[in-house]
Design a protein that fits this description.
Layout: H1 4-11, H2 15-22, H3 30-43, E1 61-65, H4 73-87, E2 91-95, H5 101-113, E3 118-121, H6 132-136, E4 141-144, E5 154-158, H7 160-173, E6 178-182, H8 189-202, E7 212-215, H9 223-237, E8 243-246, H10 249-261, E9 271-276, E10 289-292, H11 295-311, E11 320-323, E12 326-328
Parallel strand pairs: 1-2, 1-3, 3-4, 4-5, 5-11, 6-7, 6-8, 8-9, 9-10
Antiparallel strand pairs: 10-12
């Protein structure tokens, strides 16, 4: 097992300098940092815990930071990450900050102190400063299911723009020209990208006045918000649409309940498309047509990229992986073009 002295010798620096690099210190030149991290890779050196915990060394561990695992979306990803990591003899440390910045900070502090081999980030509300130490000390990071401004590390996302495009296109091809859209939160990059997919399709329709997409008055990913949005739209405008596109399957459930409360039949009077292909989508009434997200594949690819990055001897350019969506047709869309 190589030690820190060998790293210092190979990189032609002091042991103290190696320690500063591995602890994410800013007081190291970029060239020195590069030499030290290169030596760490070549020697496959793995630092142990701090002196206080040196008898509790834990190797082959990745940290996973996910907002929460309620429902199915993130839980499917975490299960896939864990399964792939286990197959490669890696342990998984899971933190669930529930969108609280202080908890994110505490979890990342724990990961850094325990010298995890790499980190998968499922969301980061505290901003990029929280992970600067990992970048400076050469700890690999993979981002999953959220958009970053600068691609400094591997990223795995689903094609939300393409998914939004597919949903509206499917409704259009089935004759629908007046569509109510239930949008997601403005702070959610995925929700905004699904709106972009709608606009991309509308820009291709000629004449543009042929299709109208109305936005419900509420935003969110929950059934209650969708229920309120549909109810308020019907109260203000009446039934001026023949189809609904819901930003996810939970909001589709809320929309279905609101429409049924008003005595509106689905899909005879109104069709609906969701997004996610949740496990319950095939058990709704009518069974829900929806856009499938490859959640398991996202988790597997993220774990694969991270473990490859941990094992590699030489740096490569970051990868930006965009996994495709597809439409799953069931019973909730009626063709009114005939």
């Amino acid at each position: 097992m190589p030690n820190i002295r060998e790293v210092a010798k190979l990189s032609s620096v002091s042991i103290a300098t190696v320690s500063r690099v591995l602890n994410g210190s800013e007081n190291v030149s970029s060239e020195t940092r590069r030499r030290v991290l290169k030596a760490v890779k070549e020697l496959n050196y793995r630092p142990s815990f701090s002196f206080r915990e040196k008898n509790s060394t834990l190797f082959n561990t990745i940290g996973v930071l996910i907002p929460d695992i309620r429902g199915y979306h993130y839980s499917d990803m975490v299960m896939a990450i864990d399964e792939y990591a286990y197959s490669k003899d890696f342990n998984v440390m899971l933190a669930l900050p529930k969108w609280e910045v202080d908890v994110e900070q505490q979890a990342l502090d724990q990961y850094f102190r325990r010298k995890v081999d790499g980190v998968i980030l499922g969301e980061l509300f505290g901003g990029g400063e929280l992970i600067k130490r990992f970048e400076r000390s050469g700890v690999p990071i993979v981002v999953i299911d959220f958009v970053v401004d600068e691609i400094n590390f591997d990223v795995v996302n689903v094609d939300n723009v393409g998914g939004g495009f597919l949903a509206i296109k499917h409704l259009y091809e089935n004759g629908h020209r007046k569509i109510l859209f239930i949008p997601g939160p403005e702070i959610s990059p995925a929700a905004i990208d699904r709106e972009r997919g709608i606009r991309r399709f509308l820009n291709r329709v000629s004449p543009k006045s042929e299709v109208e997409v109305y936005f419900s008055g509420t935003r969110g990913y929950n059934s209650e918000e969708a229920w309120e949005g549909v109810k308020s739209h019907l109260e203000e405008y009446g039934l001026n649409f023949t189809a609904v596109f819901a930003v996810n399957d939970w909001t589709a459930i809320g929309a279905i309940d609101a429409l049924k409360d008003e005595g509106i039949k689905l899909p005879e009077e109104v069709s609906i498309v969701g997004f996610d292909d949740a496990p319950f989508a095939q058990y709704t009434n009518p069974r829900l047509t929806t856009i499938m997200q490859p959640r398991v594949e996202m988790g597997t690819v993220a774990a694969q990229l991270l473990i490859e990055r941990i094992a590699e001897k030489h740096q490569r350019l970051p990868k930006n992986v965009i996994l495709p969506t597809k439409i799953v047709e069931r019973e909730s869309v009626r063709d009114i073009s005939k």
